[in-house]
Structure to design on (67 residues):
């Protein structure tokens, strides 16, 4: 399960989905790789979490415990 630090990560995931559609996860992964290559571990982790969130948002059923 992704951990969200704030709503901006959800907003970024939603923007990537709106812009790239089914390829949104690939774009988030590319941004994470670019951040890693630049030595920016904070943005690397942030984009990896956004990538995981995109996958979670694409699932059409409840994930985890449902009360």
């Amino acid at each position: 399960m992704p951990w969200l630090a704030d709503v901006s990560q959800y907003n970024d995931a939603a923007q990537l989905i709106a812009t790239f559609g089914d390829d949104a996860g690939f774009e988030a992964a590319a941004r994470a790789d670019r951040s890693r290559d630049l030595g920016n571990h904070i943005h690397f982790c942030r984009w990896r979490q956004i990538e995981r969130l995109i996958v979670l948002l694409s699932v059409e059923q409840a994930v985890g415990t449902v009360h």
Observations:
- The mean pLDDT is 93.
- The helical segments are 7-20, 24-37, 41-58.
